[in-house]
What does this fold into?
Amino acid sequence: MEKININPEFNNLNNPETFINHFNTLKEQLASEKENKGLFRVMPANKWIEQAKNRPIPKPLFDKFWFENELCILFADTNMGKSILAVQIGNSISKGEPIQGFKMEAAKQPVLYFDFELTDKQFEIRYSDGFNNHYRFDNMFLRVEINPNAEIPERESFEDYLNYSLEQSIIDTKAKILIVDNLTYLKNETEKAKDALPLMKYLKELKNKYELSILALAHTPKRDLSKPITRNDLQGSKMLINFCDSAFAIGESFQDKSLRYIKQIKARNTEIIYDAENIVICQLHKPFNFLQFEFIDFGVENEHLKKLSEKEKLELEDNIIELKRNNPDISFGQIAKQLRTNKMKVKRVLDRNNS
It folds into this structure.
C-alpha cells in the first residue's frame, strides 16, 4: 500500500481550516487507495457518472464520424482520397469552419498533420492552381514531415526516435488534434495482430496523456469491390477496430469514377447514422486551388458497388474450384484473399461442388 504523508501542518489544531483541509485530503487518499486494485480502479457506477459529469461533452470534429477525445481510423484502398479528405478535415478545424454538408462544433484550434505520404512539392500542387495562386491555410494548420537530415541518436531505434519526436511535437505545439497519414509508417506490419496491438496501445496512451483527438489513416488490402465495406476490410482489422473509438471508410462508386462515398464503420459517442442505407456521396473536385471532397447527396451503398456479370460470376466460381483442386490444403480464407472475394462465397461454391 502506498504510504500516506501527513503534513506537519496537520498537527496545528488551533487552525480549524487547516485541520479540515488536511482531514479531507487524507480522506481522499484513503478512498483512492481503496479504489485502486492493481491495473483496475473500482468504484460504484454512480460515482463514475458523477466524475464524468465534470468532463466536457465531446463535440463533433467531422460530423458523426469523428468526435473530440476519440482515436478514430479512416481507411480506404489506395487512390481513394484518404489524404485529401484528412487535409480538408484538418483545414476545417484549424479555421473553425465546417466543411459544407458536414457539422463541426469544436473551437478553432491547432492541428498537427503528420504527412508521411507526400513530399512538399506534391502537397503544393494539390493546393495551388498549377503551382500558382496557392491556397492560404490558417497558421494553426501545422504540417509535419520527416527531416531527411535528422540524425538518430546512438543505441536508439528509428521507431523509438519517431515516437519521441512525435510526442515532443505535441508538447511544443500544445496541439490537441493529431492527424497521422498513415499508420503503416509508424508500424510497417499493421495487418498482423502482434504489430497492430502495441501501435494502438501507444496511440491510446498518447491520447489519454495529452487529452488528444487522433485521426489515423490506414489502407485496406485488395477487396471484392462488389461487396459492402466492413470492418474486416481494414488491415489488422481486429486489433485496430477493437482499440479505436470510431472508424469510417471511403469507397469508390462504380456509377462514376469521380464519385466517392463515406461510410461509418464504428461509433461510440453516437449511433451509426451513415450506414449502408445512408452513405454520404461526394465527388473529388478542385474548383480552383484546393483539392477536396464536395458533398453531393446521401445514398444506398449497394447502388454504388460493382455489379458482376454472369460471365464474371462463373469465372470466379471456376477459379475457386481450380485453386482448391490444385491445392487441397488451401483454406477458404487463402482462396478468398487470392481471388479478392469472401470466405462465405468460397465455402458455398465448394460445398455445391463437393470439393
Remarks:
- Residues 253 and 304 are 5 Å apart (CA to CA).
- The first strand starts at residue 36 and ends at 37.
